[in-house]
């Protein structure tokens, strides 16, 4: 059924201290394919005890791992990157089966995820310190950077592979060990990564995967004093909970949480480019990314032209099982996701929105939903404030720059924002005025391993990717050299 060229990449056990293991209780959880509802397999239902074991193993392993030179660690990380790329097709297939995204997108995510291993293999070599001129002639100030220690990560289902490598690459490159809890919906991509980590020579205990009860695992990760750093990608509600749980021990923490991205098209924009960008930004992963355009704002002068071209493009999207060629829109992850899209549409329509396209569950049934475009939008509608996380594009009209900046910033989130304009003055003004961690100008895509990914406000803090991302896994030590 899986049809993999390396069937051993599909594991149904967790990976702790270099061993493939079941839950102590022997209990399992079934994992389903969102496109068909069929059970793909099971995973161990673990809790605090197994998580503690993984953390203790990480503590032992990290002592050795940090002693390796960055160059020695880089060789292993690079090998892991190479193995991901060699097995890109199998890894993508596993991802599509458990997550639903079209195979081409899944392949793209494997390459994107692998790029973080490649990047941090190199970046780990550049954990530079400083020598600071001191105030006294007989003393010197030396600053070095050291790995923070044992890390724990909790990752979401929308990017089952890259949200793990983005954290693990930086952690391992910095000299840390990491225990990862993937989302229960998408564990097999995580296990497959562990198979390849083992093959690449990542020492036992340096990279472990535990699955099971999110709350029990999360509580152990945040309360175990061996863990020095928590990295979380997921909803703002769970991020807030983990931050509170990590507070008593003052753990270092990074949070990459929800977003409510504005996508702004000004009168002077290249409209065809804006349409292309809006499609990519809105409908990638069926609208289930934290940087997906959630609110499209189009200036009055180009509103009708944009809506016409955009709707025509959206109509060309093909819904279906992600394993089928030509499909661009897979199923949503679960019924709750479908209900949220429906709720946003119903609320908007009740307040006067027009459905330009779609608007209901797809005739394929199950978790498939029609790509939807709404017009005649008002800022009182739910979709203006809440993240939809689905294939719904609401197109709002606006009059001028000041107005749209205010509308764009009217949210507690601050992850990604997009805008299209050819006017250089406006580009600077608007980019600086947007209260977001990331701003894409004349582009619908902004994620890559060389750039710092992260938010402001209630979208979280910490950065992943780029040289900034390494800092999240390092601590600074200042050494005063006296008696000179
Ligand atoms: P989403 O709504 O996108 O599923 P969540 O924040 O619920 O986002 O999930 C992101 C990750 O957080 C998943 O791995 C999930 O299992 C995990 N998670 C959910 N609840 C908790 C919790 N109480 N403690 C720790 N992790 C949790």
TrEMBL record:
Gene3D superfamilies for the chain: Aldehyde Dehydrogenase, Chain A, domain 1, Aldehyde Dehydrogenase, Chain A, domain 2
Residues of the active site: 256
Residues in Aldehyde dehydrogenase domain copies: 20-478
RNA-binding keyword on record: no
Superkingdom of origin: Bacteria
Pfam families according to UniProt: Aldedh
Residues forming coiled coils: none
Keyword entries, A-Z: Oxidoreductase
CDD domains cross-referenced by the UniProt entry: ALDH_F5_SSADH_GabD
Residue spans crossing the bilayer: none
UniProt keyword ATP-binding, yes or no: no
Family membership: Belongs to the aldehyde dehydrogenase family.
Protein name, entry field: NADP-dependent succinate-semialdehyde dehydrogenase
Species of provenance: Paenalcaligenes hermetiae
Gene designation per UniProt: gabD
């Amino acid at each position: 059924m899986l049809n993999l060229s390396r069937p051993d990449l599909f594991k149904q056990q967790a990976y702790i201290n270099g061993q493939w293991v079941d839950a102590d209780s022997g209990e399992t959880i079934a994992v389903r394919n969102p496109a068909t509802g069929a059970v793909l397999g099971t995973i161990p239902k673990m809790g605090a005890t197994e998580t503690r074991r993984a953390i203790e193993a990480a503590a032992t392993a990290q002592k050795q791992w940090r002693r390796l030179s960055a160059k020695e660690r880089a060789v292993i990380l690079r090998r892991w990157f190479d193995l991901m790329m060699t097995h890109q097709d199998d890894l993508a297939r596993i991802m599509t089966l458990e997550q639903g995204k079209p195979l081409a997108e899944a392949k793209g995510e494997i390459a994107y995820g692998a790029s973080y291993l490649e990047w941090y293999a190199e970046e780990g070599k550049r954990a530079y310190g400083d020598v600071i001129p001191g105030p006294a002639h007989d003393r010197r100030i030396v600053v070095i950077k050291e790995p923070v220690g044992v890390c724990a990560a909790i990752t979401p289902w929308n990017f089952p592979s890259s949200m793990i490598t983005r954290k693990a690459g930086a952690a391992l490159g910095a000299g840390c060990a990491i225990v990862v809890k993937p989302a229960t919906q998408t564990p097999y991509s995580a296990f497959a990564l562990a198979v390849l980590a083992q093959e690449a020579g990542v020492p036992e205990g340096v990279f472990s995967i535990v699955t099971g009860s999110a709350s029990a695992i999360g509580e152990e990760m945040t309360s175990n004093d061996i863990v020095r750093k928590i990295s979380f990608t997921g909803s703002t509600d769970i991020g807030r909970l983990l931050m509170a749980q990590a507070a008593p021990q003052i753990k270092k923490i990074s949070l990459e949480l929800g977003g409510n991205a504005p996508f702004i098209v000004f009168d002077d924009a290249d409209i065809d480019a804006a349409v292309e960008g809006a499609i990519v930004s809105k409908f990638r992963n069926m609208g289930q990314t934290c940087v997906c355009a959630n609110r499209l704002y189009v200036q009055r002068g180009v509103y009708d032209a944009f809506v016409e071209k955009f709707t025509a493009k959206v109509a060309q999207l093909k819904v279906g099982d992600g394993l089928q060629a030509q499909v661009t829109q897979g199923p949503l992850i679960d019924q709750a996701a479908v209900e949220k899209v429906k709720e946003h549409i119903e609320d908007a329509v009740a307040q006067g929105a027009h459905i330009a396209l779609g608007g209901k569950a797809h005739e394929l049934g199950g978790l498939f939903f029609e790509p939807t475009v709404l017009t005649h939008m008002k800022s009182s509608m739910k979709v203006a404030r809440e993240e939809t996380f689905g294939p719904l594009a609401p197109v709002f009209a606006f009059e001028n720059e000041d107005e749209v900046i205010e509308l764009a910033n009217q949210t507690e989130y601050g992850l990604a924002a997009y805008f299209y304009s050819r006017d250089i003055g406006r580009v600077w003004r608007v980019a600086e005025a947007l209260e977001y961690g990331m701003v894409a100008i004349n582009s619908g895509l902004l994620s890559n391993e060389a750039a710092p990914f992260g938010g402001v406000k209630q979208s979280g803090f910490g950065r992943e990717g780029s040289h900034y991302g390494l800092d999240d896994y390092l601590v600074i030590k200042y050494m005063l050299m006296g008696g000179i």
